[in-house]
Amino acid sequence: MSSLSSLLYPLEWVVAWIMVGWHTLFTWVGLPAANGWTWVLSIVGLVLVIRTLLIPLFVRQIRSSRKLQLLQPEIKKIQDKYKGRSDPDSRQAMTRETMDLYKTSGTNPFASCLPILLQMPIFLALFNVLNNIPRAGYSVGPFTDELRQQANDATIFGAQLSDTFLGAETMSTQVIAVVLVLLMTATQFWSQRQLFMKNMPPAALDSPFAKQQKLLLYVLPVVFAVSGLWFPLGVIMYWFTSNLFTTAQQYVVIQRMPSPGSPAEKALEERRRRKAERKALRGGSSVAPALSPAPEGPALGPAASNGGRPGRTKPAGAASGGRATSGKGAKAPGRPVAAAGSTPAAPPSGRAAGQRSQPKRGTRSKRKRG
Question: For the whole model, what pTM was predicted?
Fold first, then answer.
């Protein structure tokens, strides 16, 4: 036991420095130094620091889990190939082919366990720190005797952070311990369940790997629930907060980067489809009037042909944006140009523009008779 304590001492030193650092920050903000919730927030800060440092491993865990899910059909083929063969040579050949498949695909089947495995030493170091806080003369890192006494006297709902369910002296402490253990167990179960049920394709659910994970889904919470009876309340708070952090991380990954063929991917495609439909509807309502066909009817007048600005008409025969003359002041043949500033006369009613007016028959004979 002494050798384990000596191995964990560097981690205890780091845990103590992080906790005291957060405690100093919260007391500087104005929280009471001896209050239990100040020390609980210090434990939450410890979780944030540790889990932030483990984000690269978490990303690696997600990628490894996806690769394992995609490899399940190939692994099943290998298992079917050696199905019913119990001799050592067949078992060895099946293991060799499976490991070769992992190697060629760059998949590590144990990468999904790295975050939990790396958190366990930190978990044990925090366990030792909180367990030794009631012991007089205990000192590690910046934990002076004054800080140790403050942490020991700090309570939440009347229970000290170093209390355990089995070592509790009051019923209220046992009730608080049971509630925290149930919260820790529930968040542990939920974080694993959402990863198992939402982010795994149906084809992978029948694989041996999925069956093992499903067994762990129900076994691990029970193990933590039973072992939580020996945990100090501060350690339970650490594990509960860590489970919440894991659940939030997994939710973001499942929502934005689901595994191929999983229910989460179908839900993502459905959200994208609805978003595209809403965007199309909003875009259609804004451009619909501009794309509506012009009503059928008589030709528009000069004002309409000039962009709807009455009183400004284009010279007859002038192209849009062009000039009425060609060369040096030469007039276009057959098309008179109005003087500058003058408005061209409108064509006689009932006749098309540009049509020559014909003299009325009989006018000359009437003048002669007169």
Answer: 0.64
